[in-house]
Amino acid sequence: MGSIAEFVRRPDLGRVGHSIKVRTNYFEVTDLPFPKIYHYDIVIIPKVPPASNRRIIQEAENSFSGVKAVFDGRRNVYTVRPFSFGDAHNLEVTIPEDDMDNVGIILPRVYKVIIRKVAEIDMREINKFLNGGCSISSNILTGIMALNVLIHHKPSKDHIKVGRIFYTNQGSQLLDGGIERQLNTISCKNTRCQFRISKLTNTSASSTTFEVNGQQIDIATYFFNTYGRRLQYPFLPCVVVRNETYLPIEICNVVEGQRYMRKFNERQMADMIEFTCQPPQIRNYTINQGIEILNYRQNEYMYQFGFRISNDMVITQARVLPTPTLYYHPASKEDTFTPKDGLWNLKNKKVVTGATLGSWACAVFGSERDYPIGTIQNFIRELFNTCQVAGMNISNRNLHILHCNPQGGIENSLKQVWVRAGSSAKSKPQLILCILPNTGAPLYAEIKRVGDTVIGVATQCIQGKHMFSAKKQYCANVCLKINVKLGGMNSFIDPSQMPFITQRPTIIMGASVIHPAPGEQNTGRSSIAAVTASVDAKAFRYFAAIRIQHGKQVVIDDLAEIIKELLKAFYQTCGRKPERILFYRDGISETQFLIVRENVIKAINAACKSLDEKYKPTITFVVVQKRHHTRFFPIDTRRDGDKTGNCPSGTVVDTTVVHPFEFDFYLLSHPSLQGISRPAHYHVLYDENGFNADSLQTLTYNLCYNFARCTRAVSIVPPVYYARLVCRRARFHTSGENWSDRDTLEGIGSASYAVVKSELLNFMYFA
Fold first, then answer.
1. In angstroms, rounded to a whole number, what is the distance separating the alpha carbons of residues 684 and 677?
2. Which string of b and e fits 536-548 if b means at least 16 CB within 10 Å?
3. Are 596 and 689 in contact (CB under 8 A)?
4. Minimum mean pLDDT range among 176-190, 349-363, 536-550
5. CA 270 to CA 277: how far, in whole Å?
6. Rounded to two decimals, what is the model's pTM?
7. Measured between alpha carbons, how far is 456 from 765 in angstroms, rounded to an integer?
8. How many Å apart are CA 74 and CA 71, to the nearest integer?
């Protein structure tokens, strides 16, 4: 079989840091099918919805003469022994009556199943690959696909399946609120058929009437006269389905296992987060409980394939990297500081470069009764003092405060505040403080749209609840955001601990693409791509570029032009061309690695060539992934765990559960707040800079302390974090958008995105 393109090989294993042992939610495969698996193509006639395919193949198993076949739900069947009927066969399958009803569709009972042998998969090659003896090939990929189908086959029949995830009802919790308007997405059934709800009646079953033989009759009476059934709950509304067909709600049952595709409201989201944020000890227990539920040892399909999985979680070696030293202004009591556990604060520290704030105002989105002027002034006074102590220069303390209506006219209100601020300070306003009555998206989104794309002024939103308790730590966090939005620098990493960046001019880039959510296909929203790049020698300040794209594609359109813009910005700020480029990209799966790598490397080379034919900086391209299920648990929580029982900030794993020979690692860079911490997975796809494991792992970890918005290490490298923030911010840059918790319900037409004002492009307005 042909070899698939390789990525960068692992140069070595890391050694920096102190060793700990961790348990991970991986389970060792102790036996693989040997020596081959047989692959068959399946065609079902007539064609049915994918959900019905498994039922048909399950019935067809009676004709397989004891051969256990596993099915992917579409066209692929795998066996460990060949079928007795040879390489090709046609079957006729009959499904019992009422066993195949689908939503609003009565399916046929008799099907023709066409079976054709496709290939024989040599499983010995997989063993060789796992031992580093050969490169990935199409045969190996097909073999891995077959094993995934084998693992999923029986659970897919026994449990609720969404994508590659299985769900049970054990330990489920109700997320109440908003059910009435969501009913038109729900499938229900009664004893006769299955259907999708259109709406509910406004009247009860005993009051809802329709015409029969020229006379009006209510639903409750009709059911009693026709079916001899007296309704228990005639006072409840009726379900309306199809063409104004009314059904008493008590005779309808919700079909089990339907996926909820809408956006949660704020309360539901909070409940969901609380439910899923289990401490490490509980998550460890539930993982092992899940293995018991799946019961692989009693899986007859896996038994016939000779596939065995251990019931014990894998234990592997990890290391905790040393924490970098942070530099603050020399006038600080603590001008150098080494954080502990990934956390610190601004106490006894002044920012490296404090911005000057001379023209600003405050928009309070609420009534003066809810937010008295004296309360606002007290908070602002504390914020003044915090900014001054931290090293900012607040040259204008006569802040204009205006109460505004949060329900509408946001653009006019902000324009009015902006004009008054400029008139008061006799200079162009730099900042508008916005006091918000809640954490909802609509008001916040409109403020950012107007500030970023209409007025061209930095905005800082603050929740109204903080007006009544001006805590120093909160004010310090706001100060950090304001300072960097106005061009200041909060801190930087000890240059000796980031030699890759400080020894030669180096630009750090991060890219992200966000797509409309599954329930937003008809809202007119586009995919948004953002690229950020460092523009100073300390990799603290970043500029951003945005592009709107269509088609949910992962490749970034116009990437060469974006990179060209950012290389120019680096040169204009630093006075030198970057000699090295380190590019991080998030949001792509392994199947997209090759196409994205080609896109990025080609774009960088094209951008450099357009600036200078001879300009060829060395390039390293790294993918960072957070949407995975890998978790680590310290075995000795007292010695090696943090206060929450998680692995400490700086934990890195580059053995056992990583690629057999490619250059990748897991890094848990952030301190845990609640639940089980999720590490970031870094995979090097291209490297001209000759990184070894220690140099890239340490640099990546240290960069996580260079995030401008807070005094804590973050979970992914800042350039990617900023790119995500820019993408989310760009979603707000369309007028007429509906950002309520109903925003997936109605289409809004084709969204039109505005561009960020030039006044903000040379600042970290997105911080």
1. 23
2. ebbbbbbbbbbbb
3. no
4. 176-190
5. 11
6. 0.86
7. 10
8. 7
Identify whether the C-beta of residue 457 lies closer than 8 Å to the C-beta of residue 450: no
- For residue 352, give the nearest of 382, 324, 331, 383 by alpha carbon: 331
Closest among 269, 220, 767, 741 to 486, alpha carbons compared: 767
Q: Within 13 Å, how many C-alpha atoms sit on residue 417's CB side?
A: 32
Distance, in Å, from the CA atom of 664 to the CA atom of 512, rounded to the nearest integer, reads 19
CA-CA distance, 381 to 384, in Å (whole number)?
A: 5
CB neighbours of 208 closer than 8 A, spacing ≥ 6? 201, 218, 219, 237, 238, 246
Run of H or E including 249: none
Q: Which fold has domain 179-263?
A: paz domain (2.170.260)
Which amino acid appears at position 232 of this protein?
Answer: Q
Contact 442, 739 (CB under 8 A): yes
Residue whose structure tokens are 């505040």: 417
How far is it, in rounded angstroms, from Cα 352 to Cα 488?
Answer: 8
| Nearest of 646, 650, 628 to residue 637 by alpha carbon | 646
Query: How far apart, in whole angstroms, are the C-alpha atoms of residue 437 and residue 467?
Result: 10
- The β-bridge partners of 92 are 112
Go through 76-113 and write b for each residue having 16 or more CB atoms within 10 A of its CB, e for each that does not: bbbbbbebeeeeebebebebeeeebbeeeeebeeebeb
Residue 182: pLDDT over 60: no
Does 35 sit behind a cis peptide bond, omega within 30 degrees of 0 on the bond before it? yes
Residue 250: Cβ within 10 Å count: 16
The amino acid sitting at 59 is E
Helix, strand, coil abundance in the chain, percent, nearest 5: 30, 25, 40
In the three-class reduction of DSSP (H, G, I as helix; E, B as strand; rest coil), residue 311 is classed as strand
Structure tokens at 384: 């003044």
Q: Find all residues with CB under 8 Å of 314, minimum gap 6, and list them.
A: 23, 24, 26, 27, 28, 656, 657
For residue 166, the number of C-alpha atoms closer than 13 Å in the C-beta half-sphere is 16
CB 108 within 8 A of CB 87: no
Residue found by looking up tokens 């939610």 in the block: 25
Distance (Å, whole) CA 546 – CA 530? 5
Residue with tokens 């079902």: 44
In angstroms, the CA 67 to CA 40 distance is 13
Tell me how many degrees the CA angle 411-412-417 measures, rounded to the nearest 5: 100
Query: In whole angstroms, what is the distance from residue 166 CA to residue 152 CA?
Result: 9
Provide the token pair at 716: 């992914």
Report pLDDT for 101.
46
Question: What residue spans of 159-238 are helical by DSSP H?
Answer: 179-182, 219-227
Given this model, what pLDDT does residue 742 score? 40
Whole-angstrom distance, CA of residue 69 vs CA of residue 82: 10
Q: How far is the C-alpha of 645 from the C-alpha of 634, rounded, in Å? A: 8
Give the model confidence (pLDDT) of 24-58 as tens digits. Answer: 999 999 998 878 999 999 999 998 877 788 889 98
Tell me the sheet residues that pair with 114.
43, 90
Residue 678 has pLDDT above 80, yes or no: yes
Contacts of 419 (CB under 8 A, 6+ apart): none
Q: Are 246 and 220 in contact (CB under 8 A)?
A: no
**What is the SS3 assignment for 182?**
helix
d(CA 451, CA 417): 11
Contact 349, 521 (CB under 8 A): no
Backbone angles phi, psi at 229, to 5 degrees: -115, 120
What CATH number matches the domain at 354-485, 3.20.20.70, 3.40.190.10, 3.40.50.2300, 3.40.50.300? 3.40.50.2300
Written as one string, the DSSP assignment of 577-642 is: --SEEEEEEES--GGGHHHHHHHHHHHHHHHHHHH-TT---EEEEEEEE--S---EEESSHHHH--
> Distance (Å, rounded) from C-alpha 539 to C-alpha 532?
11
Lowest mean pLDDT among 75-84, 244-253, 606-615: 244-253
- Is the pLDDT at 102 greater than 50, yes or no? no
